[in-house]
Every structure is written in structure tokens, then in C-alpha cells.
Design goal:
Number of helices: 8
Mean pLDDT: 88
Radius of gyration: 21 Å
Bound molecules: iron/sulfur cluster
Helix content: 25-40%
Order of helices and strands: HHHHEHEHEEHHEE
Number of strands: 6
Oligomer: single chain
Strand content: 5-15%
Shape: elongated
Largest sheet: 4 strands, antiparallel
Distance between the termini: 36 Å
């Protein structure tokens, strides 16, 4: 939302970032579902809503025809309806342009709606990796299971508080020789603070888990 330059029109920013290659600016704006692309192209960013600005940025990124698009929490500031529309748009454009998306999120439900494969990271390290549906249905790592348990949906029991992790305590262990999750893990064992777990094939799905 703040990635656009507030002093430049959308047209000028798109031209500057792409040099006018790969099709017209209006064409790309309209492909992202923006109505009246002429008016949007000549507008300054503050004239556009949050969802429109997000679409402009997606148009700007896709216009360069990237092989890989890194989308870092691209829907966090949007309401759920707009979030669903932006996810649909990213999915459609990626298929159409044969672009791979590396989607960074803390929300496994969002990941499930878009991704084929998921890498769960804790403290900067991969703790589980596999096909998204496998991990959602059979999470092998306690942190993945914790993230999934903290999801809220329409079927959730409203009287039950969402489970949360105990506060992070650091630096109490040397994570070079220990599991970084050991201070919060509900099933921690003595060995967990003596050996750093490596990724191994998971027994409950076709991916890997630490
Ligand atoms: S603390 Fe032990 S049981 Fe818990 S995730 Fe780390 S290695 Fe696995």
C-alpha cells in the first residue's frame, strides 16, 4: 500500500519500472480487474483505494513478465473480501503468465488457498515442507500444528479461546546445538536441547520435517 510513490501518477510509475515493454499500461491495469484503466493510469496513488493500489502493484510486477514473483504478505492490510479477490487474481495471472509465486504469509489458510507446496519456518529455519494439503491435514511438526490450531473459522467453538504459544524466551539455548522451538514446544524432550534436528522424511506425509 505504501510502495507507490505518492508524487507520481500510476502511468509514470509503471512506465519507469517497466520501460513500456510487454504491452500497454491500460491493458495491464484492465487485466488486474481495474475498471476505467485510463483514469487510474493518470491518477495519483491517494486517489485509489487500498485494493486498487494493490492491483496496480500486481500489474506493475506482472508487466515485467517475471519467472518468479515474491509476494510478501500482499493481502495483510486488506479486508477478507478484497483479500480473496487479490488471491484469485494472483492465481489467474500466475497461470496465464507461467509465473511461479513465492508467497510469504503467517496465515496457513491463505497459503492453502493459493499454494501447491508449503515451507513452514521457525526462527529462520525450515521445520516442515511438503504439499500444502498434506501439511494442513497431517502436520508433523509441533509448530505447524500450533499454527493450524490457532486458525479461526466459522465452525470454531466461540467459547473456546484460540490456543496460543507460550511467550518466546531467549536466548536461553544455543540453537546451533538445539531445536530453536524447544523453549515453547509442548512435547519437548531432553535431547531437544542437545541436538539440532535435521530435516528427515515425515512419517505422516510425503514431505520432510525437522
Ligand atoms: S523441541 Fe523437540 S519435539 Fe519439539 S519440535 Fe523441537 S525437536 Fe521436535
Amino acid at each position: 500500500m505504501s510502495a507507490l510513490n505518492p508524487t507520481m501518477t500510476i502511468r509514470r510509475q509503471m512506465r519507469e519500472s517497466n520501460g513500456g515493454a510487454n504491452g500497454s499500461i491500460e491493458d495491464w491495469l484492465s487485466r488486474t480487474g481495474l475498471p476505467d484503466p485510463d483514469r487510474i493510469a493518470d491518477a495519483l496513488p491517494h486517489r485509489l483505494s487500498g485494493g486498487q493500489r494493490q492491483r496496480v502493484l500486481i500489474a506493475m510486477a506482472m508487466m515485467a513478465r517475471p519467472k518468479v514473483l515474491i509476494a510478501d504478505e500482499p493481502t495483510t492490510a486488506l479486508d477478507v473480501t478484497m483479500q480473496a479477490q487479490i488471491l484469485d487474481l494472483l492465481r489467474d495471472l500466475a497461470r496465464e503468465q507461467q509465473t511461479a509465486i513465492l508467497f510469504v504469509t503467517h496465515d496457513l489458510s491463505v497459503a492453502a488457498s493459493l499454494a501447491d507446496r508449503v515451507l513452514v519456518l521457525y526462527a529462520g529455519r525450515i521445520v516442515e515442507m511438503g504439499r500444502i494439503q498434506d501439511v494442513i491435514q497431517n502436520a508433523a511438526h509441533p509448530y505447524s500444528a500450533g499454527l493450524l490450531a490457532a486458525r479461526f473459522d466459522l465452525d470454531s467453538d466461540r467459547q473456546r479461546p484460540l490456543p496460543t504459544l507460550p511467550p518466546e524466551r531467549r536466548p536461553t539455548i544455543n540453537t546451533e546445538n538445539a531445536c530453536a522451538y524447544a523453549t515453547r514446544c509442548p512435547i519437548v524432550q531432553p535431547d531437544c536441547t542437545a541436538i539440532r534436528p535435521r530435516l528427515e522424511p515425515a512419517s505422516v506425509h510425503g514431505g520432510v520435517v525437522a
